[in-house]
Amino acid sequence: MLAMLVNGSSDLPEKVPVLSPWVDADLGVSADEIAAALAAQKGRRVVKTHTPADGFPIWDGVTVIAVYRHPLDIFFSLRKHEANKRVVKPDHPMSLPVPDSIRRFINEPVDPDDFDKDTLASLALHYSETVLSGRYPHLNVLHYSDMLRDGHRTVQNLARAAGIEAGAELIDQVAAATVFGAMKARAVDYAPVGGTGYWKSDAGFFDSASSGKWEGKLSPAEIDLFNTRLAELVPDEKARTWLLAGDC
């Protein structure tokens, strides 16, 4: 959405991962190649990161927009992504049976030497350091559930947050181009490292665009364990409620 707004059109001059690289993801693209692609862009640029706000410098003129999602939806999406990789690690935590995988996700601490190891603790730390710490006072925060409910309004909010003057026609174009079906149909252009063979299926990167993925897949005991652990990690009830469901 941001790449389209910045370029002033839903018809982009390059694949999204080239225009808006995921700079801290180890997806087989070298740092030099990413830097060269960014340097080649002469206008305003969009960069994706999973690093919390205490892990990168904040320069004047840079707009930071953070998007969050229910941690259990993230868990099931991570399992889908791991299964969709062409090179699969059978012992990867996300490749284990759900009862084993979910308990590791909930119980394991943050590993400072491997921050890419996704756990509930690492997600909560990202949220705490980015949103709750106040480190970035002008932070723009969105929740995936709210974005799903009203994609058109999401595009408007993003344009406003980024200070982009976008007319109704551009807003309509971007909203239409970024609905789930349109994204999945052009997965080779939109999925991270699409077209490189990293994924078994680029379209498989876009699974369901739904919330509540855990319903019917986790036991009451597992859900209780999740809620108890999340309350430990994010003690503020209001902040915790927003992380789960956004502004609904």
Notable features of this structure?
single chain, about 250 residues, mainly alpha, Rossmann fold, two-stranded parallel ribbon, 13 helices, about 5% strand, globular
Describe this structure in words.
The protein has a single domain (about 1-245), classed as Rossmann fold. The relative contact order is 0.17. The chain is mostly helical and about 250 residues long. Strands 1-2 form a two-stranded parallel ribbon. It is built from 13 helices and two strands; from the N terminus they run αααβαααβααααααα. The model has no long low-confidence stretch (mean pLDDT about 90). It is globular and about 50 Å long. The two termini are about 20 Å apart. About 45% of the residues lie in helices and about 5% in strands.
Structure summarized in a few sentences:
The chain is 47% helix and 3% strand. It has helices at residues 2-7, 16-19, 31-39, 71-84, 98-107, 120-132, 144-149, 151-161, 168-177, 180-185, 187-190, 220-233, 237-245; strands at residues 65-68, 140-143. The chain is mainly alpha-helical.
